[in-house]
Amino acid sequence: MSKNHKIKLNNGVEMPIIGYGTWLVNETQPIKWAIEEGYGLIDTAVAYDNEEVVGRAIKESKVARKDIFVTTKIPNFQYDKVEDAYNACLKRLDLEYTDLLLCHSFKSKDRVKAYKVLEKLYKEKKCRAIGVSNFNIEHLKELLKETKIVPAVNQVEFHIFCYQKELLKFCKEKGIILQSYMPISRGRANLENEILKKIAKNHSKTVPQIMIRWIVQKGIPTIPKSENKDRIKMNIQVFDFELTKEEMHLLDNMPDQKAYCTANPDYIEK
Asked: Which of 5, 77, 183, 199 could form a disulfide with 222 if both were Cys (CB 3.0 to 4.6 A apart)?
């Protein structure tokens, strides 16, 4: 496996195993650094308010459009006007299509209705694949019962301190690729955990690199985010080593499991 490794979605489209998340990224430079380092996927969303920046960075990178997998997401507050919202996305991105279009949130009674519009856009070839984000098993069951196209992707919070094992199993059974966001928990979890630090030392790697490696070694795509040039470079340098079975087992069983992102259905307000 290398940074160029791709995961085949349920419609045959191939998606890079590692991409660059752009939440709170409002300048083109970090995105261009990511593209230079070989991140083949750039993830954005209406809610991030940076689609114009992402589109500009892609064009300034000089990398061919076909070689950059672009994801955007429609927020729940636009579920009543998905098609218009998506057309506005394309205009801001200055693109003719996106590679992946997601319903960003479960937080609306119109989520199934919104996804049906994604089905329409997919059939019209305005995007190459469709899916959802922040949906749990019950939300997915509801969707599968009432729609025709199985989501290609469910993008969720997923890392060693939020190991959504049952959701991962369900997605695999239904042919849905689980994609991990917040692979490093945005630094909110206990990155000083002694087990984690010891494994990092064993491989002469950083704790974030170990956390990202754990995900990709499971064959799960992920989208780490940083605006720091050195960290952008380090986050993708996870394909030159392999965690042992024992290390994977330890990381599979980390204590203090909980949701850190408010968009996660399992998040509990503290």
From this structure: 183
Burial call 203-229: b when 16+ CB within 10 Å, e when fewer: bebbbbbbbbbbbbbbebbbbbbbbee
Decide if 260 is catalytic. no
187 alpha-carbon distance from chain centroid: 17
Residues in the chain: 270
Rounded CA-CA distance 266/270 in Å is: 12
> Is there a contact between 31 and 25 (Cβ–Cβ < 8 Å)?
yes
Please tell me the chain's helix, strand, coil percentages from 3-state DSSP, rounded to the nearest 5: 40, 15, 45
Q: How far apart are CA 95 and CA 64, in angstroms?
A: 12
Place of tokens 């959504």: 164
Domain boundaries, the chain: 6-189+219-240
**pLDDT band at 157; cut points 50, 70, 90:** very high
Question: pTM for the whole thing?
Answer: 0.96
113 Cα distance to chain centroid: 23
Mind listing the pLDDT tens digit for each residue in 160-182?
Answer: 999 999 999 999 999 999 999 99
Tens digit of pLDDT for each residue in 222-255?
999 999 999 999 999 999 999 999 999 999 999 9
Please work out, in degrees rounded to the nearest 5, the angle formed at the alpha carbon of residue 76 by the alpha carbons of 72 and 82: 65
> Beta strands 6-8 and 14-16: pairing type?
antiparallel
Catalytic hit among 48, 86, 115, 163: 48
